[in-house]
UniProtKB/TrEMBL annotation, chains A, B:
Domain named Isopropylmalate dehydrogenase-like: residues: 5-339
Gene: leuB
Obligatory cofactor(s): Mn(2+); Mg(2+)
InterPro entries tied to this protein: ICDH/IPMDH (IPR050501), IsoCit/isopropylmalate_DH_CS (IPR019818), IsoPropMal-DH-like_dom (IPR024084)
Name the record gives this protein: 3-isopropylmalate dehydrogenase
Entry annotated with the keyword Metal-binding: yes
GO molecular function ontology, one term from the record: magnesium ion binding
Alphabetical UniProt keywords: Manganese, Metal-binding, NAD, Oxidoreductase
Lineage, highest ranks first: Bacteria, Bacillati, Actinomycetota, Actinomycetes, Micromonosporales
Keyword Cell cycle: no
Length: 343, 343
């Protein structure tokens, strides 16, 4: 049996460039893994009109994890690749823990005055299979003055409880052991009430973990005024999408923002990808920063139980970033080489 | 006939303290206005169980504008006062333009390194009567493992078009004449498509205004990495709630964040209130900053067509804030006195 079967979906734009580095680093730290490459994204769609052929999805399901680069291109209408590929994988592979660590690394600069490396260290546990992302909605009387469009947020006790429990599990293994629930209970009273009650119930199982609640608007403000206060944050799909981009911004941009769409039971493969997009404007030049992609590979290793290997990759990326000369040009492949050599 | 009939809902916590200053300043600049005070908020609710008695609502409807302080207290369950008072006024009085200017004023400091006063100057035009705020949703199988909770976002062409047109109108009267639409068209495809199509249609009526689209996650990031880029932003109710708190954070906090819930046709009274809450922790001490409340009064004057008076109030607040000694204690009433004397 193979050490690990990894599906590689490098995708569009800089996706292919950064994914090559992530793979290089996994290879260095976990020799003998099997890779299968899948050409999905804008190219496939523009050539064939297909986004995720059923046969490919079946093959993907046979892997331990999916290493994803970036999906998206201005030539494709909004939603097609997102709904048809990224979100389809999250939903069909029950990737209910959308994991997004944010850390201000040595060598990086926060746009926030006076915040120093090491001071921000949080992980947002974003629900990945429910909420407004389910695609429940429609349009009536399109293109007439009577048009209405709806979007429905669906939240189940099942879905809310499991992601909250995952957040508490993680908090318990961290230094500060603190979980913040973020929602908008004063307006979204139905879903908010379900989240609050479930949060309280799960919290009772973790007496060693301290808790806090914040509305999404207040939390977004605190992400700017005092991001140091956050340890583990648990929230719904849409709020998590927004909060993690603010968290990335205050930790110096999406250059270091890794993510995992995780099925913790490993019943289905989990997907690991940088938060950044395909960046068509700089694609093909070999200048994209692969740090976020390599850190996503570290999350992948962690998920496969390769804790020591994951730690080595994370440390190597941190060291590489800390050693950079501010303002000096960056070569994608050289960063990958340096990290691969260091692990 | 009276110069203006203003309903005063000072509300909870520091609401009463800051509203007194706002009223003092309106009095100084617009002598002869009639005021009626309404005791609404946590006190009334805790005493009587009522939030907005029908008779009070009828009386409020007879005013030109409502000056509101802050509503909310930990003793009241989440949603009761928000849904029953603040949102009820927005919906029943058709306050579809939720106006939130954000400016980095001289004398204030942004938490963002290197951003200087004068560089951030935007107004978010947030839709105020639709979206996820309509309260459409419910709970099934409560407190069982089968529980589900829903929230529905309702968007009409009517509602979307009028707020977008308002945003373009405002942009046309500003220096940069630029409108950014913020939504999440790649996930909320139904509502997103309605917003995008309507935005394009209205934009065609304003050839002198430049336009741009951003996803809410990207816009939230830009609010931190490059808030200078925004001029007028138009967005839905929930995204506007979040974005305006980030905008407040990067312009030095909610101390200067004013807002108006506006019915532009003046068929119903509009509400003007600071974005900050009732701050029970500092209530009663006379140390709350009334700047946001007074700037909200300036928005009120502007709405009533008192452009010169509004400008004088805004300038007086700006001057007062610029004259403050950093770190020196602030007395609510003295700030009010100084601004009232200056206008
Ligand atoms: C591309 C888009 C569908 C996706 C999301 O909204 O989840 C992205 O923004 C992310 O955060 O992974
Ligand atoms: C108090 C709450 C209902 C309100 C909102 O969500 O609109 C507040 O956050 C605001 O921004 O005015």
């Amino acid at each position: 049996m193979s050490v690990a079967r990894i599906a590689v979906v490098a995708g569009d734009g800089i996706g292919t460039e950064v994914t090559a580095q992530a793979r290089k680093v996994i290879d260095a730290v976990l020799p003998g893994a099997d890779y299968n490459e899948y050409d999905l994204g804008a190219r496939l769609y523009n050539r064939t009109g297909e986004v995720l052929p059923a046969s490919v999805q079946t093959e993907l399901a046979g892997h331990d994890a999916i290493l994803l680069g970036a999906i998206g291109d201005p030539s494709v209408p909004p939603g097609v690749l997102e709904r048809g590929l990224l979100l389809k994988l999250r939903f069909d592979f029950d990737q209910y823990v959308n994991l997004r660590p944010s850390k201000l690394w040595p060598g990086t600069t926060s746009p926030l005055a006076g915040v120093k490396p090491g001071e921000i260290d949080m992980v947002v546990v974003r629900e990945g299979t429910e909420g407004l992302y389910v695609g429940a909605g429609g349009v009536l009387h399109k293109d007439t003055p009577a048009e209405i469009a709806t979007e429905e947020s669906l939240n189940t006790r099942h879905g809310v409880e499991r992601v909250i429990r995952d957040a508490f599990d993680r908090a318990q293994r961290r230094d500060r052991k603190h979980v913040t629930l973020v929602h908008k209970t004063n307006v979204l009273t139905h879903a908010g009430n379900l989240w609050s009650r479930t949060f309280a119930a799960v919290a009772a199982e973790f007496p060693g973990v301290t808790t806090e609640y914040q509305h999404i608007d207040a939390a977004s403000m605190f992400m700017v005024s005092n991001p140091q206060r956050f340890d583990v944050v648990v929230t719904d799909n849409l709020f998590g999408d927004i909060l993690t981009d603010i968290a990335a911004a205050v930790t110096g941009g999406i250059g270091m923002a890794a993510s995992g769409s995780v099925n913790p039971e490993r019943k289905f493969p989990s997907t690991f990808e940088p938060v950044h997009g395909s960046a068509p404007d700089i694609a093909g030049q070999g200048i994209a920063d692969p740090a976020a992609a390599i850190l996503s590979a570290a999350l992948l290793l962690e998920h496969l139980g390769r804790h020591a290997e994951a730690a080595r990759v994370t440390e190597a990326v941190a060291a590489e970033v800390a050693s950079r000369t501010p303002g000096a040009p960056l070569r994608t492949a050289e960063v990958g080489d340096r990290v691969a050599a260091a692990v």
